[in-house]
Amino acid sequence: MSTPTRGIVILDFGSQFTQLIARRIRSKGVFSVVLPWNAAREKILSYDPSGVILSGGPASVFEENAPTIPADIWSWDRPVLGICYGMQLVARDLGLSVERVGKAEYGHARIRANSSHPLFRNTPAEQSVWMSHGDSVRGGGTALDVLATSNEGEMAAFHVPPKRAYAVQFHPEVHHTAFGDTILENFLVEVCHAERNWSAGAIVNQMVGEIRELVGDGRVICAVSGGVDSSVVACLVDRAVGKKLHCVFVDNGLLRAGEREAVTGLLASHLSAPLEVVDARARFLERLRGVDDPEEKRKRIGNLFIEIFEEVSTARGPFDFLAQGTLYPDRIESFSTGGPSVTIKTHHNVGGLPKNMRFKLVEPLALLFKDEVRAVGAELGLPRHQLSRHPFPGPGLAVRVLGEVTEEKLAILRQADAIFIDALREYGLYDTVWQALAVLLPVKSVGVMGDARTYAFPIVLRAVTSTDGMTADWAELPTEFLREVSSRIINRVPHVNRVAYDVSSKPPSTIEWE
Length: 514
Description:
Helix 5 (200-215) packs across helix 11 and helix 6 packs across helix 11. This protein is 31% helix and 24% strand. By secondary structure, it is of the alpha/beta class. The protein has a 9-stranded mixed sheet with strand order 2-1-3-4-9-8-7-5-6, with helices on both faces. The chain has a 5-stranded parallel sheet with strand order 12-11-10-13-14, sandwiched between helices. Strands 15, 16, 17, 18 and 19 form a 5-stranded mixed sheet that branches. The longest helix has 23 residues, at 294-316. It has 3 domains: 8-191, Class I glutamine amidotransferase (GATase) domain (Rossmann fold); 200-387, HUPs (Rossmann fold, 3-Layer(aba) Sandwich), CATH 3.40.50.620; 401-501, GMP Synthetase, Chain A, domain 3. The protein has helices at 18-26, 41-45, 85-93, 180-191, 200-215, 228-241, 259-268, 281-288, 294-316, 328-334, 370-379, 384-387, 407-426, 479-492, and strands at residues 8-12, 32-36, 51-54, 80-83, 96-113, 126-140, 145-150, 155-160, 165-168, 220-223, 245-251, 275-279, 321-323, 360-362, 435-440, 445-449, 452-465, 473-474, 496-501. The chain contains 14 helices and 19 strands. Strand 17 and strand 18 (473-474) form a beta hairpin.
């Protein structure tokens, strides 16, 4: 998908909330993109942004080699909003005094704001915000409008009119800031006059046209797994180029129960392009034999997928393009943004591709978050039950069987996972969680079943709530439900004698265990 313009560019200084800023903005129909703090001036301005946001971050302006803002940012004549660390950078750059404080201010705080100012319009004079900072802005030689102060007397927001500079010491993007959504809306509408051109219908029309232009007279091979992402990509490319598309479903033996039949049935009824099914179960298990490192698993799976596509391409081709469902969070988690953030994990469809791959990539979803993909899918006519499916990792159950993957372990996990998912649907809980999964641990524990001692595997259940997968909270499922699911798994699945429930959030944990 080509670069939309007249949205908001967010420069990332390493805040755990940076992606949340982007989601909040997009939810208002305004395009946003995250770039590293040291992105080239030409890259930033290629978006012709209507405004720039400087995220928070863990650094201090007093640290040696701390991230800085672009040297000529004030010559761009674009409104700039600094958040937390971004506020301190703006202040220092404009000649204000930034001082170390003896005690960091973190968590809930009360501020008094100038509600008549455009940035705080439609918010009360006193409001609750979420603070997170160790340095403070005190003022200085530059004329500025102080827009808010905390009850502790700290400067909480300011505006330097000649430079079109705005700054807040708190995080407006998190739900703990009571009127943060309104403050961001005010920045977009009252300050930046941003265009609201980010909608599912507009995205579909743009992507279909771009795919046609990119593919031209070429042909496309598309991997389909039956998940939301690959199904939407297949339908998009099918709408754009029709019979020039050849879809391939690879049964890698790492699928959930009944997945192959469900996927082929769904896609056959929604595509005009042919769908080929490749049974590669034995090949994937052999490729994974003896491998217990999660990154190595992902790379081997990704490489074998490409090998299979190239084999199909030779037999059915030639094909010029490979279409895949890479999402924006995939890219963010697979590569550092160039700031203080680090790689979390390699997604098989991002970091596991061979360097000598002869396909050109078609990745129409590469700028979209998950909920945006679902909206695009609905615009394309995909059924709700398909679009509401929980995310499923490209490497499948291989990254939910911790340690070495074997046929026996896959069979155990497949049964436990089916019991858990079926029970969520039975109890009307499936749509209340973002993602639910079962994990098989590479250890055994002692148990008693009947009068016999057992030494069997534990299963960990995980369910989370989220908006886009970038952050997630563990789902507080009813105790009686968990009791019932545990009983069903232990009684019905051989070689399992213990069930645990994961109560960790992201961050610090990831949703998947590998």
